[in-house]
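S1.2 Input.
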Amino acid sequence: MQRITVPSGDYVYKVDDPSSSIFVVKTGKVEITTTYPETGAGVDASHGPGHIFGEVEVIDGRARSSSARAVVTTDLMRIEREELMDLLYEHPEKSLLIGKSAFERLKELYSEESLDSDLARLREELEISIRDAVVAHESRVVKSHNGMAAIGVPIVLMIALAVGAYWFFHRS
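S1.3 Output.
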């Protein structure tokens, strides 16, 4: 085990980094983020003191699927994969903490309840965004129509005056 300090804003690991260790937050806060091409980084989860993160990729041996960034200066315990395996074999009772963390993460990822609540939240956010866009559009249309009236009324008056003047001076 190695204690490390990660300054605020620095990354613990990034997407596609090899997953050779898990981390336990001692102090501070870490956000797990995914970068989207259109909108930038989105926060998937936050971990504070006592939380374990990075274990799912270490368990299945794949590269990091997201990035982990310190929100504030954060103290972490880094446990390398080999140390983790030794720890689990020598002290199996400690595997419950890591197993619980991995189980909660997998449950969160694949739970239908989680998916339903995420869909409901996204649906509500979408409705709000659409409503705000419609209101903004309607506001622009009203301003546009008011601008057209401001231009159109003098033109109509000028045409009426021109027709009236023509009629007045050209009557037989």
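S1.4 Remarks. Strands lie at 2-6, 11-13, 21-27, 30-36, 40-47, 52-53, 67-70, 74-80.
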